[in-house]
Amino acid sequence: PAWGYPLRVREKPATRSRFGRLVRRATLLLIALTGVAVLLYFVTLPIYARHRVAALLRDLGAADHAFTLERVSLAGLRITGLRAGPAAEPWLQAQAIDVRYSLASLWRGRIRAIDATGATWRITVRNDVVDWGFVLKDHTRDEGLTLPFDRASLTDGELIIDLEDERLAIPLAGSLNKSLTHTTPGAYAVAMN
Questions:
Q1: pLDDT confidence of 191, banded at 50, 70, 90?
Q2: Quick one: pLDDT band at residue 48, thresholds 50, 70, 90?
Q3: Per-residue pLDDT averaged across 52-81, rounded?
Q4: Rounded to an integer, what distance in angstroms lies between the CA atom of residue 51 and that of residue 24?
Q5: How far from the centroid of its chain's Cα atoms is residue 48's Cα?
Q6: d(CA 48, CA 11)
Q7: Are 71 and 97 a contacting pair, CB within 8 Å?
Q8: What is the distance between the alpha carbons of residues 176 and 186, in angstroms, rounded to a whole number?
Q9: Alpha helix segments (H runs only) across 40-157
Q10: Count of H-run helices and E-run strands, the chain
Q11: Per-residue pLDDT, 17
Q12: Does pLDDT of 67 surpass 90?
C-alpha cells in the first residue's frame, strides 16, 4: 500500500517433519541408554564385584574379612589390603590382587588371570592338628579339582607355618598356568621361584 501502512501477511505455522520427530526421539533414547550404561558401569558393577569377592571369601570360610576394591571394569578388578580371618591373626593377607577377565570368560565361569603381590598365608599347627585357614572341600580322586582360572601368579609372597614352639617363614613366588600341551583335561603347569 502506498499509504505507509504495513502489510500483514499471515505465515503458515512451522510444522515438524516426521523425520525431525524421529531424530529427536532417537537422540533422547540414545541419551537415556547412555545414562543407564553409565549408571550400571560406575555404580552397579562395583557393588556387584564387591558382593562377589565377599561371597568368595565367605565360601572359603573367612566370615571375618576386609578388603578394598580399588578398581573394577569390564576387563578386570584390583583388590588391595585383603585380610581373611580374624584381624588379630588373619590366615591370609595380600597387598594387592589383580584379576583379569573378559565378558566371554566370565560367561564360561572362568577368570583369565590372578596376580597376587605381597600375599602371606599362615598355617597353624597345634596338637598335631593343621589349620589351613580356609575350608577344604572334599574332592574324590575321580572328580579331581577344577580351578576356575587360566593363570595365577604370586610375587613377594610368604608362607608362614606357625608351630607350637616356632614360626617358619618361607618366601614364595611363582605361577600356575593352565597347560595347553597336556592331553589331560584341567592340567596345570607349575613354576616356583
A1: low
A2: confident
A3: 89
A4: 39
A5: 9
A6: 58
A7: no
A8: 12
A9: 45-59, 103-107
A10: 3, 9
A11: 79
A12: yes
Half-sphere exposure of 191 (CA within 13 A, CB side): 10
Hey, how many other C-beta atoms are within 10 angstroms of the C-beta on 121?
21
Q: How confident is the model at residue 83 (pLDDT cuts 50, 70, 90)?
A: very high
Distances (CA, A) of 155 to 21, 57, 80: 59, 21, 14
Cα Rg of the chain, angstroms? 29
DSSP helix, strand, coil percent of the chain (3-state; round to 5): 25, 40, 35
C-alpha neighbours within 13 Å on the C-beta side of residue 121: 15
- Nearest Cα residue to 157 out of 109, 116, 106, 186: 116
Length, in residues, of the chain: 193
pLDDT at 97 over 90: yes
Residue 98 and residue 115 in contact, taking contact as beta carbons nearer than 8 Å: yes
- pLDDT value of position 137: 61
Q: Give residue 127's Cα distance to chain centre.
A: 38
Give Cβ neighbours of residue 193 (< 8 Å, ≥ 6 apart).
Answer: 173, 174
Tell me, what's the pLDDT at 155?
94
C-alpha 106/C-alpha 75 separation (Å) is: 10
